[in-house]
Design a protein that fits this description.
Layout lengths: L10 H6 L10 E4 L2 E7 L15 H9 L3 E8 L6 H11 L2 E11 L1 H7 L3 E4 L5 E3 L11 H7 L22 H22 L12 E3 H6 L5 E2 L17 E2 L4 H6 L4 H5 L2 H11 L5 H6 L15 H12 L2 H11 L1 H10 L3
Parallel strand pairs: 2-3, 3-4, 4-5, 4-6, 5-8
Antiparallel strand pairs: 1-2, 6-7, 8-9
Helix pairs in contact: 2-3, 3-4, 10-12, 12-13, 13-14
């Protein structure tokens, strides 16, 4: 093994330890919102050759934005101080995360640090809360080969694992170290998570919603050709679907489709939508409204229908994306 002095480091080693700017393809600015795709295993430094997403890329991208939307499909990543910086930054800006595949371990810490964490589809996966260190003990192999590592050290816990051998005390110290780091991540998160959920398990989106790990679930929202009946199938954190539909105060309103809600708002606002809807092809069986209608009025009507601001935002985005972005850019209602 070659050992380098600190002033003698080769360029490739120096570059590997330095944070880098995120590449231009890593994010996209849409109407004042920075959209970022977080995929694959997360590492401290991104690598365009291998396509690995780095904490340094994420931190660089969100440090320059006040409004962020993350699309997450990642099993997590390594323990690194940059993860804490990402979490703190997301907590201080208008941020939301949409799970498109998996959101586990370090990726869950990132998603849960956002103001809103929503799953797109029932079969997306959430959880993996925990941490681990993997070490290899070669004690038995060394004994068979006649090797006996001799460790000379200053400090009882110095040189843990040197020579490929770990004592019971060494393993306990590694566990203590890992627990300290994990507890600090939990403190940064600032959200209490029951101890029984910190077990490394991964849950499907609907179960994650029941356990309070996410804020909302949007089945089929980004899927072409779903039926109108599915529009009312949005589930919101803190409210069981049966409870929402059983509330007598909104029963009559909930029986109406979102298309009827839109028509009522349009009528109240004296907006003529027939010509506008004829100009644009409809992807959903919902009548679109023109840009000059009362977006705020429609939003609050949808809140009364679904009983949740999260579900109302999702519904508004489907019905009229222009109005959705207009309100998002204007104010966080």
């Amino acid at each position: 093994m070659i050992v380098y002095a600190s002033h003698d480091l080769p360029n490739e080693i120096e570059m590997a330890t330095m944070p880098s700017r995120s590449p231009v393809w890593f994010y996209n600015d849409v109407d004042g919102v920075r959209e970022i795709g977080i995929t694959g295993v997360l590492v401290p430094n991104g690598d365009e050759v291998s396509g690995q997403i780095g904490y340094d890329w994420i931190l660089d991208a969100i440090s320059e934005a006040d409004r962020v939307r993350l699309f997450i499909d990642s099993p997590g990543g390594v323990v690194h101080p940059a993860l804490e910086r990402i979490m703190r930054r997301l907590q201080n800006i208008d941020s939301e995360a949409i799970v498109t595949g998996m959101c586990a371990s370090a990726a869950y810490f990132i998603g849960r640090s956002c103001k809103r964490l929503i799953c797109d589809g029932y079969t997306t996966e959430v959880g993996g809360i925990g941490a681990y260190i993997l070490v290899w003990d070669f004690t038995e192999s060394n004994r068979q080969k006649g090797y006996k590592p001799i460790k000379v050290k200053i400090g009882d816990m110095k040189g843990i694992g040197a020579g490929g051998e770990y004592s019971e005390l060494d393993v306990k110290e590694l566990e203590r170290y890992l627990r300290d780091i994990f507890d600090e991540y939990m403190n940064v998160l600032g959200r209490p998570i029951p101890e029984n959920l910190i077990d490394g398990r991964v849950y499907t989106a609907k179960k994650a919603l029941e356990l309070g790990l996410i804020d909302g679930l949007m089945p089929g929202v980004y899927t072409e050709g779903y039926e109108m009946s599915e529009v009312d199938d949005i589930i919101v954190s803190g409210q069981e679907e049966s409870e929402v539909k059983s509330e007598e105060s909104v029963e009559n309103v909930e029986m109406a489709s979102e298309a009827q809600v839109v028509e009522n708002v349009v009528a109240e606002s004296s907006v003529h939508v027939e010509e506008e809807s004829a100009k644009q092809p409809e992807k959903l069986p919902i009548k679109r409204v023109s840009d000059d209608f009362s977006a705020e009025k429609l939003f609050y009507k949808l809140v009364s229908v679904h009983g949740s601001r999260t579900a109302a935002w999702a519904a508004l985005e489907r019905i009229n994306p222009e109005a959705y972005m207009k309100l998002r850019n204007k104010i966080n209602l």
